[in-house]
Amino acid sequence: MRETGNVAFLHHLVRDRIRRSLDAKQKLLLDVSFHNLTVHVALRIVDSLRSGGKVLFFGNGGSAADAQHLAAEFTGRYLRERPTLPAVALGVNPSSVTAIGNDYGFDLVFARELDALGKPGDVAVGISTSGNSRNVIRALEIAKSKSIYTVALTGASGGSLRNIADSTICVPSEETPRIQECHILTGHIICEIVEQMLCGDAS
Q1: Least crowded by CB within 10 Å, which of 23, 45, 103, 117?
Q2: How would you classify residue 91: left for phi > 0, otherwise alpha for psi between -120 and 50, otherwise beta?
Q3: Pick from 121, 125, 123: nearest CA to 136
């Protein structure tokens, strides 16, 4: 009987988490400013790529995984066969991360890589659910000093990144899993816009 009760609770948990995810996405669906900002960011990336630039993604933990995921959509493909698009996920080289972290501090693990790899005309996308990750903030500060367009993907408040990034896309949730789910949705939408604009069929 106890096991049956536990299973019922777990079924309730599954339904509740799906509902919360849908609620967050429903808010995005109705948020015209989110639509406008997402299109704007995608078009800035298109302009960068057309001019020989690249996209640099970075974040911590699950956001680091999102950064790698989105960079892979550019260098591989998203929905269609096409030429590769230049994108880099920072923080994926353990030797670089541990050397920078050991010698300069963890706050600079993305900033120093971005300083080495970024150039004017690129786009830097920092991902932080709180908007307050120090290493993401420092990297976007370096990016701005190099005339790199800066984008932040954050949670509802935007955190400190709201006042730093050129464009801040805030997901209307305070729950880290829901924010991350919406971040990858946003990233996928941006990937699709970029592919359509660069590879035809744009309307």
Answers
A1: 103
A2: left
A3: 125
Statement: the pTM of the whole predicted model exceeds 0.90 = yes
Crossing angle of helices 176-199 and 2-30, in 10° steps, is 40
Angle of CA points 27, 87, 90, to nearest 5°: 85
Q: Which of 93, 50, 163, 134 is nearest to 150 (CA)?
A: 163
Tokens of 111: 């900033």
CATH of domain 32-199: 3.40.50.10490
Domain ranges of the chain: 32-199
| Burial class of residue 2 in the structure, from the number of CB atoms within 10 Å of its CB (0-12 exposed, 13-18 middle, 19+ buried) | exposed
